[in-house]
Specification:
Elements: H1 23-33, H2 36-41, E1 45-49, E2 58-59, H3 70-73, E3 80-82, H4 92-109, E4 117-120, H5 137-143, H6 146-162, E5 167-168, H7 192-208, E6 212-218, H8 237-244, H9 246-253, E7 259-262, E8 266-267, E9 270-271, H10 276-286, E10 292-294, H11 302-305, H12 313-323, H13 337-344, H14 350-366, H15 389-392, H16 401-414, E11 416-420, E12 431-435, H17 451-454, H18 471-478, E13 483-487, H19 500-508, E14 512-518, H20 544-552, E15 558-564, H21 573-576, E16 579-584, H22 590-599, E17 654-661, E18 665-667, E19 671-680, E20 686-695, E21 707-716, E22 721-729, E23 735-736, E24 742-744, E25 747-756, E26 759-769, E27 773-774, E28 784-787
Parallel strand pairs: 1-3, 3-4, 4-5, 5-6, 6-7, 7-10, 12-13, 12-14, 14-15, 15-16, 18-26
Antiparallel strand pairs: 1-2, 8-9, 11-16, 17-19, 19-22, 20-21, 20-25, 22-28, 23-24, 24-27, 25-26
Helix pairs in contact: 1-14, 5-16, 6-7, 6-16, 7-9, 12-13, 16-22, 18-22, 19-20
């Protein structure tokens, strides 16, 4: 039988519970009936953990928060439940039952029967025990394939929705400005167009499943000085407008994102959480965003404790509300008693409470949480017997075959072949020396926001919950007739040189060496990549470079494989490796994707979303540099990358030809149309990624030498050719002018059709004519590609 847990209603349905009325009228009526304490209770969350036996959740304690008494809070209501699945390892079915029972308790405790919004992390999959760990966002960028990322996000959203979650804290739309930053793995890349298009696809997929997507971190977090986490950001207004903001504009306008999370950092002395011009003036008044703004965890309290712009927690709450923050996460701190007291004393106007509350309740109404027939029973429990928790254990699968197949597809598309002297694909080698710290480490495919690395490491006695084949297992399956000798050589960052001699001996006895190097994801110094795991330089962690150099001296061809969260300088390996394979924490199917590329079972098709540096100390730099950022005779530091943004090889060859432009001139409100032919001239099927870069040789303000404005993936059989047509609106040539307005200027432009930022194949000179034209966030964002059948 199904437990009776539906919310009880009276025969006369209150206006706020009546879906026949407009949402605005329902919300206004509810606000008018609430006390101050009930209003404020809707504006904060409580960090909880689901019960392992299906009972109600328990408050999670953190060293940055005080104990929370739910029994005291719940009679006033509760805005959000923070990470019920993502706090401790819990069977998904029992976690869903725990959330169900908690929601029942919340609705029965407050006068209006309002449930909480449950939110979770979903940066590389639903961050819950037993859920599929997909490739990290940097791998999303490497696919140059928005469609597959949209499908992945929809699958993640369906899993979250099935167990009662409403909101996901993703995607990260920060544009990489310094690869030393630990959270590079969480980003999509160093180009705002790539970040915007891939991030928007993720938002569309998540929202299609009914999950509220949360854009983060708004804005400037990735531009911190020296790549240090939560350091000040030295960003000018033009860099903010032309590099950091466009992905958010696109994800709101095209993706329909319903929530935004403020950044921790300040820009020019103004913390994002207290920046009214950003969170209200730009986000709402200019862009028209009507969703909720949520605090990054503890970010409102940081206005007092870290930024020093608030004298006490009440001042911090008032500053955040004034700026436009609606919800305090992860738990109640400043929006609790300090805010009640501040409003009562007249220090914070109640109108600010009502403004934030209206947004929160509007979103709850749109989620159906105010409807009289709302039920806490999630879709996964349709028809289940909820009175027997143990019978539910194992009944919800968050890592099913469809998920894993999708994870495999993304991993295959994301692994990048950086160099190859013809050694790859391997032709049935007899003896393989598999060397390196990531050769036998299952977690080497996971980022820091995957559940096993984010939470599971705190519970070493509990199984990881998902299948994670290491590289040794995948190579053994891929090359069943080969003799594989495994030698660790050294650790990721332990500095141990004692195993290098053994590794060299194994290399000399082998036909081929596969050396697996890179990172260990973790949090706040517990890894070499991840939040709070910033790098002093882009040298490989520990003594991995010494191991690599010793193997290169062995006389046996070396295939260098990176399982990492950021790009690293590889020293002489750039020239001396037989091949270099770059992967960015490629998820549950990652090692199989790498093995498949090595054998030739799959054809590499990934492209770099970030440049790979030639030297470890040339940061910060990205391909988006102006002329002064390029190599010159007046500096001894050469920032030229070893492998540029967009680079990636395949096992076949392509010829580009017959570029035509319909008209070489267009007005500043017009467009150009260009066409080219791409032919697979090799003997294998393969994927080419046609990238369109814009070069503006003369502008009223300094411009990058080039910037990506469009791309398309082409899958071609041997000998097959396709005609590709690209429409380039003048809007994509826009930039922020001297007066702070975005403009399109008349003048000459160069359209560069390229295989990467360092390999232009075809160019077209075109001219914009007419007056300077001002554009805004409603401009056309994309150069649109069409491939003829």
């Amino acid at each position: 039988m199904t437990a009776n847990v539906a919310v009880e209603t009276t025969p006369e349905v209150p206006l706020w519970n009546d879906p026949s009325h407009p949402v605005s009228a329902r919300v206004d009526a509810l606000i008018g009936a609430m006390t101050l304490q009930e209003k404020i209770a809707q504006l904060y969350g409580v960090w909880v953990g689901a019960s392992a036996d299906g009972g109600e959740v328990a408050p999670h304690q953190h060293d940055m928060e005080e104990a929370v008494d739910l029994d005291t809070l719940l009679p006033s209501g509760l805005g959000q439940l923070t990470r019920p699945f993502g706090t401790a390892p819990v069977d998904p079915a029992l976690g869903a039952l725990s959330l169900l029972r908690t929601q029942t308790g919340i609705t029965s405790a407050n006068r209006f029967g309002i449930p909480a919004v449950a939110h979770e992390e979903c940066l590389a999959g639903f961050a819950a025990w037993g859920a599929t760990a997909y490739p990290v966002p940097l791998s999303w960028g490497a696919t140059f394939d928005p469609d597959v990322i949209r499908r992945m996000a929809a699958a993640i959203g369906r899993d979250m929705r099935a167990v009662g979650v409403h909101q996901g804290l993703a995607p990260v739309l920060d544009v990489v400005r310094d690869a030393r930053w630990g959270r590079v793995e969480e980003t999509i890349g160093e180009d705002p167009y790539l970040v915007g298009t891939i991030g928007t696809a993720y938002v569309q997929g998540l929202e299609s499943a009914g999950i509220v997507a949360t854009l983060k971190h708004f804005v400037g977090y990735s531009a911190s000085r020296a790549g240090r986490n939560l350091a000040p950001s030295s960003v000018g207004p033009r860099e903010r407008a032309d590099v950091l903001l466009p992905p958010f504009e696109m994800a709101i306008r095209e993706g329909g994102a319903r929530s935004v999370m403020h950044a921790y950092t300040d820009i020019d002395g103004v913390p994002s959480a207290a920046d009214e011009s950003l969170l209200t003036g730009l986000l709402r008044d200019t862009w028209g965003f009507d969703g909720t703004v949520v605090a990054d965890y503890f970010g409102i309290a940081f206005l007092k404790t870290l930024h020093g712009v608030a004298g006490d927690f009440a001042d911090a709450a008032g500053a955040a509300l004034t700026a436009g923050v609606d919800i305090e996460l992860p738990t109640v701190k400043t929006f609790g008693a300090p805010l009640v007291e501040a409003v009562t004393e007249g220090r914070v106007p109640e109108s600010l409470i009502d403004r934030a509350l209206r947004r929160v309740l509007t979103q709850k109404a749109e989620l159906g949480l105010l409807d009289p027939d709302w039920s806490p029973v999630p879709p996964a429990f349709d028809g289940a017997d909820l009175d027997d928790p143990e019978a539910l254990r194992g009944k919800i699968d968050l890592d099913g075959p469809e998920n894993r197949e999708l994870a495999r597809e993304i991993a295959d598309k994301a692994v990048v072949l950086l160099s190859n002297d013809g050694t790859l694909p391997l032709d049935r080698p007899r003896r393989i020396a598999l060397v390196g710290p990531n050769a036998t480490e299952p977690s080497a495919v996971l980022g820091c926001y995957s559940f096993p690395q984010h939470v599971g490491v705190k519970y070493p006695d509990i199984p990881v919950g998902i299948e994670l084949p290491d590289l040794r297992e995948s190579l053994t399956a891929e090359f069943p007739d080969a003799e594989i000798t495994v030698v660790r050589g050294t650790g990721v960052d332990d500095g141990d040189l004692s195993g290098i001699a053994e590794a060299v001996d194994a290399a000399r006895d082998a036909d081929i060496v596969v050396v697996a190097l890179g990172d260990r994801a973790g949090l706040f110094g517990r890894g070499t990549s991840g939040e709070g795991c910033d790098a002093e330089s882009l040298s490989l962690p520990g003594v991995q470079q010494q191991l690599l150099d010793a193997l290169l001296d062995s006389g046996t061809p070396v295939v260098t494989v990176l399982l990492a969260g950021r790009p690293y300088a590889l020293g002489r390996a750039v020239q001396d490796s037989a091949a270099i394979v770059q992967s960015f924490f490629p998820g549950v199917a990652g090692t199989r994707a790498i093995a498949g590329m090595l054998s030739g079972r799959t054809n590499p098709s990934g492209r770099l979303p970030v440049s790979v540096p030639r030297t470890p100390g040339s940061q910060p730099t990205t391909y988006l540099g102006a002329p002064l950022a390029q190599a010159s005779e007046v500096s001894n530091i050469d920032p030229t990358p070893a492998f540029g943004f967009g680079h990636g090889l395949t096992y076949t060859t392509f010829a580009w030809s017959a570029l035509t432009v319909d008209a070489e001139e267009a007005p500043t409100d017009g467009e150009f149309t260009a066409s080219l032919t791409v032919r697979n001239t090799g003997g294998r099927a393969g994927t080419e990624v046609v990238q369109l870069y814009l070069h503006d040789p003369v502008a009223s303000v300094v411009q990058p030498v080039q910037r990506l404005v469009g791309y398309a993936r082409l899958d071609l059989e041997p000998g097959e050719e396709r005609r590709v047509r690209v429409t380039v609106p003048a809007d994509v040539a826009s930039f922020t002018g001297r007066d702070g307005h975005r403009i399109v200027e008349p003048g000459s432009l160069e359209l560069r059709l390229a295989a990467s930022s360092t390999e232009t194949r075809l160019t077209a000179e075109v001219t914009l004519t007419g007056p300077v034209r001002q554009v805004d966030h409603t401009r056309r964002f994309r150069a649109e590609f069409a491939v003829e059948a």
